[in-house]
Structure to design on (1261 residues):
């Protein structure tokens, strides 16, 4: 084989390598060293995204006073919490301030979870260790509770259906009586910049048995035509114990309040087996203003029952002076509720509701072991 | 079509095609009898389509997916042949038999395609390597891409006729080549559009190079004009045969968000994708790459093949190089196509050169080379098949009979359903259940806004698409009442919190609790959905039922019935011992 | 399988001869069969047989068509045709037709329901608050032995009784087979036995009478392990019935800056909650629309 003949082969091989290198470079190239505070935070979260937690821990500063196991538990979640069912999608970072040895970086993270998108914002301190920047990861403050022995006093409702072939007219247990207490249509931003109509309200179980409720709203136009039908979906507590009141919010993206002549509400209730547990206290509820000037409802959840609540769902109802519902806000907490251990939560509040709006916070929950029991 | 006789030189004889076809049966027959493709990604999808044709040959409207969709969104030939065989063999074995026939056609196609470039002996080695190709094993047993392999087999068998017609204006070759090309398009349109393009231009250049050989005196203009005539006739006939498909595509162009696919990754950064979409498909053919570069560029007649292979390989690398994103930037094609098929075609294009290498190694090392090459080829095939076990695409097996039974009793089919965590077993459920679903596997047929507005594929795999998948699932569940979506079968507890918070309740469990049924009580029975899709008119159904399968039958009869112009056998060893390279082409 | 009659065998010819003879005999007898009449009773009790009288002579076919019944059989004219009670179970109008030769005669009679022998009883609702006026309804459908609705007036007794409490009894006449009543729920909670009866038959349903809204809701506090433990007195409605376990009781603590709420469930008659220890905070309790007392932490209730 002559040199000339090999020349084209070599040329093509080089061209191939160049193209591979170009592709590699355009996709970000090799992991860079954390030579800036922002790079340290981004690198940490990049490893979290691929669930490489030991890799992410390499960007955690010694000053964090944590270890890889605790760091992993904090980032990946534990106890069947929502965080264990979440994957990091995106992270946006911005440097708040920086000097030669220390910086503050805000990391806005977007997680894909079992219940939809979750957003989190953390202000992280980044320090210089040797030549690299490292993140001071706030270590998990969850106390290590010693083994507890709790007397459980379960209360449950079961439904026993009569055997087939009973005489005609034998009664069946009626569905629980539920009533809509309050209903307000509102034109508002539905989130993500989408405008639309939302129906806000409350529903109560007036019966002495638990009910599985859902609320459907139909918007009717000027000529009685249907403009849309939606349900409360997850912005309601579907299981209502006797005398329990749940807020609900039904969104109609794209609808205009001016086009609506009538709203038809259809609450449905079903008698279901249910448990009276767990009891979750909502402590220290208060409205604060965050660094960006937005109002935030904060508080702590305390599981006063004897078993873990895996996914708490906080729903806040806001009222005007006349007691009418003017807003319903909700959010999932990505930490599990261990018995007696407080877990903080916060919800965004509409900024136009006045300084001290009246509100009520209820907690819906999902517990792995209880489903279908 | 006649091929030159095998070389009779002792120790350098070509292996007869019949023997190679028997080898293909021996290798793939048992694997297909074991129904290995039944657990692949797409085989159940194709069986679903076939099951519909088996009972509604002239009605391509299928209510079972997406609230109703037209099967004219997918070329029907492979499905219709499976449907025809299913009346005798049952659906699954019909699929396996059609796949085996396709592998035989593909093997013959590789042999005939290789003969355009190399001598019979090297072509026979290439065909053997084709039987044991890692990418073929991946495509058949992991991907379950019956239509793709069928269309590729057709393309490979059409190319020698294209070459023959372009060089010598053989009318019989024109008829046969066009007939096979049209049948290939009726099997898989994307293969024809991209694959035939990538395969055809080197052959066209070869026809130009060869125009004055073997006492032929074709002009450049003649070759070009004949190739154009071939392409034009084929295009017109394809447009006629697949007219309902083009009407459907025109009425409902694919406007959905791109769906992530590992074959678009940078394989150097995502090593698993690199393994899955390049290393395993190439197998030990990777060892031949230096030879392909050196010999492919050194011999003038092989250069078109080399450059065709090189371009196809670069495209098959997906996002590893900028080539595929740049070349396929029109209409977002890069984010719509998947690239495992390009690697499949690249490996096929590499086979003639690999056959040459095999011949030279055998000449030099004799039995040791035979053993080594055989081991390497078997290893490639074995890795392609074993990859499904090493990296299973499904979780633990589970039975869906009870799910199907539930949907088919007590009027449950009045409501729609979805499955979560079922993987490709969803296709099996939807094939045998009478109820319809808002989910479906063939993404291009989707029109429901809740499915097209997000960059995710099937709802049953929603979690793997991150936010896009879960948001799509949430959107569908929000409109459950409008869609009559009452039943959700769950095999992955990941989805249970969303269902519980959204108002579904667990009602029953199956398969020892591994599958649970969740229901919503206030859902009214399903009704016809108004989202822009409508059943195609009856005349399209009749066209769809007659023309594609008719084109394939015509292709069979034309190949069997129209004789080729025979030429005197004149074996020429390749490569030529000295001087100019010798040429030998298929006829 | 009928044998062909036109074959040229000896047996075939004999069959043809027999058939022709039969036809001739029928033609001769026909005038005698035309002179017939039908006599049936106007009313018959369900399940009782009936004798249908005919005049004339000869063979005829009897058709009897009624609700859920259709009978065809051959009879001899002039002799009574008996229809058994088993064929006359369903009340309603029956039509008798006797056909002889080319002529048919018809008559009608009614099968009426027998005495009340069973009841279908609809009691609503299955749960009702105590001391609610006209809250319980009972509807009884009276049937005879054969599930015919007894249209004749029947005396139906409704009785609502709860253990250790007075019972309420209403007697009413059924009208076209249906009797109904409305009753107040008792003041005592529990499973009330609601019985509908006719002589010899009674049907029982259970109506759960449940406590109404809580009355005089009171609670007290005591220091707990991690704050304050609030516990209600036994929660009863205004009739003294224990409010059902599982009912939500909301404790609210307000310390001026923050607020804490616990939706506790009544268990074994009382509701308990743990609240933060905030000196000076006020704690209130409520269940549904009923508010209870207020307690100040560190102060007097």
């Amino acid at each position: 084989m002559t040199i000339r003949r090999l020349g084209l082969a070599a040329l093509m091989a080089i061209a191939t390598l160049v193209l591979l290198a170009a592709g590699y470079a355009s996709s970000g190239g090799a992991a860079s060293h954390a030579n800036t505070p922002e790079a340290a935070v981004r690198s940490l979260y990049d490893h979290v995204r691929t669930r490489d937690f030991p890799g992410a821990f390499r960007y955690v500063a010694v000053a964090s006073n944590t270890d890889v196991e605790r760091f992993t538990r904090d980032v990946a979640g534990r106890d069947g919490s929502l965080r264990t069912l979440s994957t990091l999608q995106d992270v946006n970072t911005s440097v708040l301030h920086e000097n030669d040895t220390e910086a503050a970086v805000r990391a806005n993270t977007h997680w894909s979870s079992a219940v939809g998108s979750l957003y989190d914002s953390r202000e992280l301190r980044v320090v210089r260790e040797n030549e690299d920047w490292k993140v001071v990861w706030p270590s998990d403050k969850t106390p290590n509770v010693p083994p507890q022995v709790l007397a459980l006093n379960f209360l449950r409702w079961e439904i026993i259906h009569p055997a087939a072939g009973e005489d005609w007219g034998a009664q069946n247990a009626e569905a629980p009586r539920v009533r809509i207490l309050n209903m307000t249509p509102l034109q508002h931003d539905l989130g993500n910049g989408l405008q639309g109509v939302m129906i806000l309200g409350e529903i109560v179980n007036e019966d002495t048995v638990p009910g599985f409720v859902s609320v459907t709203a139909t918007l009717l136009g000027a000529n009685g035509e249907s403009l849309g039908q939606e349900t409360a979906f997850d912005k309601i507590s579907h299981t209502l114990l006797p005398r329990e009141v749940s807020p609900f919010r039904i969104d109609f993206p794209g609808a205009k309040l001016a086009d609506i002549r009538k709203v038809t509400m259809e609450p449905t209730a079903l008698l279901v087996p249910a448990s009276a547990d767990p009891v979750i206290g909502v402590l220290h509820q208060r409205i604060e203003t965050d660094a960006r000037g937005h109002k935030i409802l904060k508080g702590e959840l305390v599981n006063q029952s004897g078993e873990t609540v895996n996914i708490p769902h906080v729903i806040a109802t806001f009222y005007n002076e006349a007691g009418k519902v003017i807003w319903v806000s909700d959010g999932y907490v990505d930490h599990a509720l261990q018995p007696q251990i407080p877990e903080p939560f916060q919800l965004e509040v509409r900024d136009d509701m006045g300084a001290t709006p009246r509100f009520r916070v209820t907690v819906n929950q999902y517990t792995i072991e209880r489903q279908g029991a | 079509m006649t091929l030159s006789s095998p070389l009779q030189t002792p120790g350098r004889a070509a292996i007869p095609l019949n023997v190679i076809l028997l080898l293909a049966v021996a290798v793939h027959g048992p694997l297909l009898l074991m129904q290995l493709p039944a657990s692949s990604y797409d085989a159940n999808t194709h069986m679903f389509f076939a099951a519909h044709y088996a009972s509604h040959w002239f009605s391509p409207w299928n209510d079972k997916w997406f609230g109703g969709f037209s099967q004219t969104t997918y070329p029907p030939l492979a499905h219709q042949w499976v449907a025809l065989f299913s009346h005798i063999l049952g659906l699954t074995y019909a699929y396996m038999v059609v796949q085996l026939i396709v592998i035989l056609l593909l093997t013959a196609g590789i042999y005939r395609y290789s003969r355009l470039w190399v001598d019979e002996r090297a072509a026979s080695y290439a065909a053997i390597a084709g039987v044991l190709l890692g990418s073929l094993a991946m495509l058949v047993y992991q991907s379950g891409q019956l239509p793709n392999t069928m269309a590729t087999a057709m393309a490979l068998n059409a190319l020698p006729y294209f070459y023959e017609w372009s060089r010598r204006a053989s009318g019989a070759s024109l008829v046969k080549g066009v007939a096979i090309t049209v049948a290939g398009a009726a099997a898989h349109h994307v293969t024809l559009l991209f694959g035939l393009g990538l395969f055809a231009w080197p052959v066209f250049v070869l026809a130009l190079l060869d125009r004055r050989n073997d006492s032929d005196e074709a002009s450049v203009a003649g070759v070009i004009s004949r190739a154009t005539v071939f392409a034009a006739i084929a295009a017109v006939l394809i447009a006629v045969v697949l007219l309902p498909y083009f009407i459907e595509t025109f009425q409902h162009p694919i406007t959905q968000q791109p769906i992530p696919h590992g074959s678009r990754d940078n394989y150097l950064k995502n090593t698993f994708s690199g393994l899955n979409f390049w290393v395993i498909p190439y197998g030990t053919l990777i060892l031949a790459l230096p030879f392909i570069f050196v010999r492919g560029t050194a011999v003038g007649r092989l250069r078109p093949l080399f450059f065709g292979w090189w371009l196809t390989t670069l495209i098959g690398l997906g996002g590893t190089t900028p080539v595929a994103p740049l070349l396929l930037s029109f209409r977002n094609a890069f984010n719509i196509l998947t690239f495992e098929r390009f690697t499949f075609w690249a490996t096929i294009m590499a086979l003639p050169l690999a056959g040459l290498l095999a011949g030279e190694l055998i000449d030099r090392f004799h039995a040791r080379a035979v053993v080594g090459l055989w081991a390497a080829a078997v290893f490639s095939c074995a890795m392609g098949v074993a990859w499904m076990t090493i990296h299973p695409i499904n979780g633990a097996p589970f039975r869906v009979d009870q799910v199907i039974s539930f949907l088919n009793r007590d009027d449950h089919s009045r409501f729609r359903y979805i499955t979560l965590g079922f993987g490709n077993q969803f296709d099996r459920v939807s094939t045998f259940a009478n109820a319809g679903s808002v989910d479906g596997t063939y993404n291009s047929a989707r029109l429901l806004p809740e499915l097209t507005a997000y960059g995710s594929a099937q709802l049953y795999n929603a979690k793997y698409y991150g936010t896009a998948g879960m948001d799509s699932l949430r959107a569908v569940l929000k409109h459950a009442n409008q869609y009559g979506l009452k039943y959700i079968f769950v095999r992955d507890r990941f989805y249970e919190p969303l269902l519980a918070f959204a108002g579904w309740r667990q009602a029953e469990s199956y398969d020892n609790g591994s599958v649970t049924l969740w229901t919503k009580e206030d859902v009214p029975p399903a009704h016809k959905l108004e989202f822009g899709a409508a059943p195609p008119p009856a005349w399209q159904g009749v066209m769809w039922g007659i023309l594609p399968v008719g084109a394939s039958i015509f292709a069979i009869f034309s190949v069997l019935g129209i004789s080729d112009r025979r030429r005197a056998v004149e074996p020429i060893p390749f490569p030529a011992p000295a001087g100019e390279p010798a040429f030998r082409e298929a006829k | 399988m009928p044998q062909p009659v036109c074959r040229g065998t000896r047996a075939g010819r004999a069959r043809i001869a027999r058939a022709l003879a039969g036809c001739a005999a029928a033609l001769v007898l026909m005038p005698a069969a035309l002179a017939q009449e039908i006599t049936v009773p106007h009313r018959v009790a369900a399940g009782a047989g009936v004798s249908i009288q005919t005049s004339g002579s000869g063979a005829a076919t009897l058709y009897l068509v009624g609700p859920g019944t259709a009978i065809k059989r051959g009879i001899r004219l002039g002799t009574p045709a008996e229809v058994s009670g088993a064929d006359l179970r369903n009340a309603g109008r029956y039509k008798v037709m006797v056909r002889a030769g080319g002529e048919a005669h018809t008559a009608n009679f009614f099968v009426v329901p027998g005495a009340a022998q069973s009841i279908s009883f609809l009691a609503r609702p299955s749960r009702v608050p105590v001391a609610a006026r006209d809250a319980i309804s009972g509807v009884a459908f009276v049937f005879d032995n054969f599930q015919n609705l007894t249209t004749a007036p029947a005396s139906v007794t409704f009785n609502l009784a709860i253990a250790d409490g007075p019972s309420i009894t209403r007697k009413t006449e059924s009208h076209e087979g249906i009797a109904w009543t409305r009753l107040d729920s008792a003041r005592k909670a529990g499973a009330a036995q609601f019985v509908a009866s006719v002589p010899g038959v009674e049907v029982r349903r259970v109506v759960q009478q449940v406590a109404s809204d809580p009355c005089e809701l009171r609670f007290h506090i005591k220091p707990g392990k991690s704050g304050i433990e609030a516990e209600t007195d036994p929660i009863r409605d205004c009739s003294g019935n224990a409010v059902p376990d599982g009912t939500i009781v909301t404790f609210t603590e307000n310390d001026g800056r923050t607020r804490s709420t616990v939706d506790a469930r009544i268990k074994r008659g009382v509701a308990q909650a743990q609240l933060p220890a905030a000196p000076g905070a006020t704690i209130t309790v409520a269940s549904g629309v009923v508010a209870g007392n207020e307690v100040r932490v560190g102060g007097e209730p």
In short: Residues 1-9, 22-35 of chain C have pLDDT under 50 and may be disordered. Helices of chain C lie at 10-34.
